[in-house]
Amino acid sequence: MQSVRRPARVAARALLASTGLVLTVNAVWLAFTANLTVGTAATAVAGIGLLAWARWLPRRRWLNAAGVVAVAAVAGFAVLLTTVGTHDTATGDEDAVIVLGAAVHGSELSRTLADRLDAALAYHRGNPAAPIVVTGGKGAQENLPEADAMRAYLVAHGVPAAGVIVEDRATSTVENFANSKAMLDARFPAGYRVVFVTDEFHVFRAGGLAAAAGLAATHVSSHTPWYFWSANYLREELAVLAWWAGVGRGV
Description:
This protein is of the alpha/beta class. It has helices spanning 2-33, 38-55, 61-85, 111-126, 146-156, 173-185, 203-212, 229-245, and strands at residues 96-100, 104-105, 108-109, 132-135, 164-167, 193-199, 216-222. The protein has 2 domains: 2-85, no CATH class; 96-225, HUPs (Rossmann fold). Helix 1 packs antiparallel against helix 2.
């Protein structure tokens, strides 16, 4: 029995160590190349935790079982977010578009934000009459409000300036929708419909927050680059748990 367990423990240690190393390196890389976020910190904690687990693999089965359950829960949660987020619900005839902000590095759009805007542009080509609300304030590591950078990108890619509505004060998804709704309420009669654009990992929570804000909303998703998967999904899972618990304003 011992001879069977030893190879299994060696394989488990190798898997844990390699995964932990990848996550730790990814967190360090993100810390130097992107804005610092809760997701970056969560990735570092996860990576270091897996490395520690590999080094001190418990001999008590229940401890290892608890670790496996925790990892499975995180992975399953990510699958849920991906499944919901990648099934777009836009009908193409919505009255307005809301593009949710994401990081700006100094004055340069992050890959995440550019991808969201590209998804909005693709929708705009099929429904050019719908005004586009760009929403996002100025973060600590940003030289200008996200909404201003978003507007410049859309206009540079052919969207008429008059067709872009700038909401440049929001600091959370809750405020993104609340502030955007206030602007759209002044333009449209009751019963208007919107489509929001965000990354697939964010759609699940964003849809709930849009409904809570009183918006009749569908969605179009962009896709998170693979090197942001761990940071974005871990951050979003924490945000969803906080939302369900009613903690904070939402991010």
